[in-house]
Each structure stands twice: as C-alpha cells, then as structure tokens.
Design brief:
alpha/beta
Amino acid sequence: MTTTHLISGGARSGKSRYAESLALQHAGAVCYVATAERRPDAAFAERIAHHQARRPAHWGLAEAGRELASVLQQAAPGSLQLVDCLGMWLMRFFDADGRFDADAWQQQRSALLALLAAPAASIVLVSNEVGWGVVPLGAETRHFVDELGRLNQDVAAVCQRVSLVACGQPLLLKGQP
C-alpha cells in the first residue's frame, strides 16, 4: 500500500531530518528527489552538502527540475520517494528577474496534485511553512508566499498524513500515527 505524507515546518525546524528518519524506516528502496536549483553562492552549496552528508549512500537520487510529477511517476512500486522541498520547487518557476511563469506552474502543480491522488509509490514531501510571519513587502516574495501557502493547503488535502515540525518535534495534523 502506498502512502503520502506532507511534512511542513519553518526554516531549520527539523522537517528534513524527520522526513529522512521516516525514509530510513522504509523497507524498500528510497529515492531522494531534490528540487533545488544549484546556485553559485557558498552558503547554499553548504546547505546542499549538509543534506547530502546525512543521506545513506544506498538511497537513489533524482533531480526534479520543474517536472516533479514526471519524476515521481517513474518510481518503482514499493519504493519511497522523499521530495525535499516544495518551496525550492516553486522557486524554479521564478526567473532571475523575479518574473513568475504562471502557465508552467499551473500545469506542473496540477500534475503533482493528480499524481498524489493515486501514486505508484509512497511519497514523503517536505515543505516550508511560510504563513506565520508578516505579509512580505516585496511583490515577488509576497507572490511566493501566497503560491506556496496555497500549494501546501492543496497537497495537505490529498495527502493521507500531514505533520508539522517545530524544534525538531513532529506534530501529526492529519492521519493515523
């Protein structure tokens, strides 16, 4: 039986570590689905290296680009796909000048939601909870927060389990423990 689980939380809340702990318990193959676009800054490269160092060598790796649903469709039955993270995936639809590719986003977002309704493999998705702060002043940041908030709500609606992580502690919001 496949399961879908959304794990959300703030920056450095422990959400990725929690997702990885669940993946370590999975009896079958695990594939880490990276969504971030590599950037030339050292701090971001350090974050990626930190995540890579925590992952077991036997886990597979897929880099999703914009086509996250297509990558997840290729999963072998019985496997677990760990998607980290939806916020980084959303950023791929903004260009360097802050313009948002709304048409491509709606198409890919719809494809992901359709796939989550009937996945071939179990999926754990990590996302950022960005709705607890003040409304951002910049239009691009405000647009990002709005889109990610709506995506998180829609993904949570179709996932069987939803957890919120704060201070490294998961709180089950939906589903069975």
